[in-house]
## 1
Amino acid sequence: MILQYGNISKLKSKDWYYIELRSDKTVENTLRRVGKAIPGIFRSEAIEIFIPVNKRDLDVFDLETSVYVFVRSTAFGCLLRLKSVTGVVSLVTEGETNRPSKAISVTDDYVQTLVKKVERAFYERAAGIKQGSFVRILDGETRDYCGHVLLVTDGKACVKVDLKTKSLMIETPVRNLLNLSQVPDDQRVFYHSPLVKALVEDGKSSLIAEDLKFVESPVLGKSLPEIQQVDSGAPKKFSRQSTVTALVKRLVSEGIIDPMKVAREVVVAIRKKDIKPPKNLLIVYCIVKDTLMKSHFLKLNPRLENYRDVIRQYGEAYKFSPTDIASIDAQIGIPVTTLDPAKDGRSREAREQKRRLAELEQERVAAEAARAEEILKSLPKHKRKVPKLRLRQGV
């Protein structure tokens, strides 16, 4: 992991220093505080921090160098101020004298060799991840959750995490996943940890048996107080996975490629308020068409250029329209298209309004110029000329 701030081109080939952290158990939290403090300490100066991460897992953030990280900057004095951050001890010095002049430095060649070593380990942790792999998510809002990979494409993976009462579809880079394919099937729950492994080894696998397979149960949803719905009158908030896009990707990955069946599932989810309703049904139409094209048909035939080619090659069964989606449920309350102008300044109406304002401004400037000319003409001739300023030589 490398943190950079400012114009780091000035640091090329510059030597590095060691910074000691207080504990190897709080490395991640300390580095988070350092990242927040850097702009206030360094301001216009540049800094580069290399954190040689050795292993990442559940509550695991091990460094290759124990409690030491490498740092270099265009301002040595600012490096000394890093010890004001909670969790940072100071620069490492000869004989622990804490004198800045005795700070231990290492060459850039040595650090770059270590960078390449850590980089190889970084790529290897995701090696072998494919469809069906059991993985752990390392960073993000759903970090530490475990799930199964449904789809891998263009360096990204779609991971399905089965919780108690719902399933999450998480799209994340493959490099953000830790391959746990070595975990036995009877331990593959979303909260897999060493404790789960110990329970199974002690013959208590029955404690997690019900969580091995997700079964949607409305009774369970009502029995758990932490997820009961309370009507407070405030608008319902939806997560990033409670969207039309996430639902369509999940349905296509499960093998549902009939566009109207996919659209029908979307409409049902909107009716049940399981996903965030779109602004219009044209958006649903575009998402379904685009997902089918990228996640299914292009894999069958990479030569396809657009969805019209899909209809020509695979039949009229894949032909549908926003109006067809609207006919699924006429009472859903979502228009086929939206006539209201966009509020981000990109609509035709917004552009026309900006053009009209510009014309009015030009008319105002022209009117003021004409008025000034009329005033000038009304003055006597000897007052119309504006005297010129004369500058004396050498002034």
## 2
Amino acid sequence: MAETAHSRFQHVYTIVRFDFPVDQDYPENSVAIVKVLSSKMLAKKELSRLCKLNAAKGCRYEMRITRLVP
């Protein structure tokens, strides 16, 4: 998704956790939205913190941009 401002909705930044190995019977249980932040800078800091904190736990964190619909 492009980061250019949307005319109607505010951009927010989600931190998504992927747990490995993926549950083959219920793969949806291996993905979770951990946090949603309104600042890209804060989201990057939190992403870095979570990656370091949980590096040995078999999970990976990613940041994605989306839109807030009130």
